Amino acid sequence: MIYLQNITILDILDILIVTTIVYYLLMTFRGIKALQMTILLLIILFLFFAAQWLQLNLLHYLSSVLLVIWGVFFLLIFQPEFRNILTKVSKLPLFSFILRKAVSEEEAYINEIIEAVMEMSSKRIGALIVFEQNTDIRNYIDNAVILDAAVTKELLVTIFSLNTPLHDGAVIIRNGRVYAARCVLPLPEGANIPREFGTRHRAAVGLSELTDAGVIVISEETKRISFAHRGQFLTRGMNRNEVKDILYDLLIEKEKLGQETAGPEKREENDAKETP
Prior knowledge:
The protein is an alpha+beta fold. It folds into two domains: 2-85, no CATH class; 100-271, DNA integrity scanning protein, DisA, N-terminal domain (YojJ-like (1). Helices cover 55% and strands 14% of the residues. It is built from ten helices and seven strands. Strands 2-4-3-1-5-6-7 form a seven-stranded mixed beta sheet, with helices on both faces. Helix 6 (93-122) runs antiparallel to helix 9 (240-253).
C-alpha cells in the first residue's frame, strides 16, 4: 500500500507506454511463435524479479543473460516481419527525402540489369537471374562461385555468354550486388509445368515455389524474357517497359506481386508455342 501511494503520473504514463508497445508488438507478431516467445519472456521476467527480490544473485545474473538471449532469438525469428515494418515506415513522407539518394542508387543498378537483359535477349544468350527477397536462399549458394561484385551490364552479359566458366546455372542478386554465380536451383515438385519448358524455366518456378525470390529467365532459342514469382510465371515475353516495371516493383516498391496478372491476353496464345 505504501508503494501504491508513491505512484506518480509519470509512473502511470510509463506503464501505459510500455503496455501499448507490448500490445502492438503482440498484434504484429501474433501467431504460435509469438505466443511461445511471449510465454518464455514472462517466465524469464518472473525469474528475474523474483531473484532480485529474494536476493538470489546467481539466479538474477542467469535470468539477465537469458533476457539478452531471448532478445537475439526474437530478432532472428521475426526478421521478415521487422523488414516489412521497416519497408512500410520507409515509405512515410518523413523518410522520403532521406531515402531519395538510396533509391537513385537502386535505379542505377536496375537500369544496368535492364540493359543486360535486353542485350542478352537480342543476342539469344540464355540467362537465369535470381533476385533475393526476404527468404534466405543460402542453401543454393553452397556450391556456387561467390563474386559479391557491383551490378553492371558487362558483368552479367559476360557471365552468361556461352563457353564462359560461369554461364551454367543462375546468378543471385543480393542487396543490389551480384553475389553469386553458377548457382544450382531446385526443380519444381509439381507436374503443372508444360513439357516444352526447359531446365532454366523449370528451375525458376522451382525456386519461386520455395522462396519469395523473383526470377528472370531469358530463352536462348526464342529470345523471350519471362518472370517467375510465387510458383508461377506472372509474365512471359516481356518487353523493356515490362521488365522495368517488374524490377521496380520487386526491388524498390517491394510490393507483393502475387496478385499481378499474367500479362495481355495475346501472350496466352503464344505461350503454347514458346520453346525455352
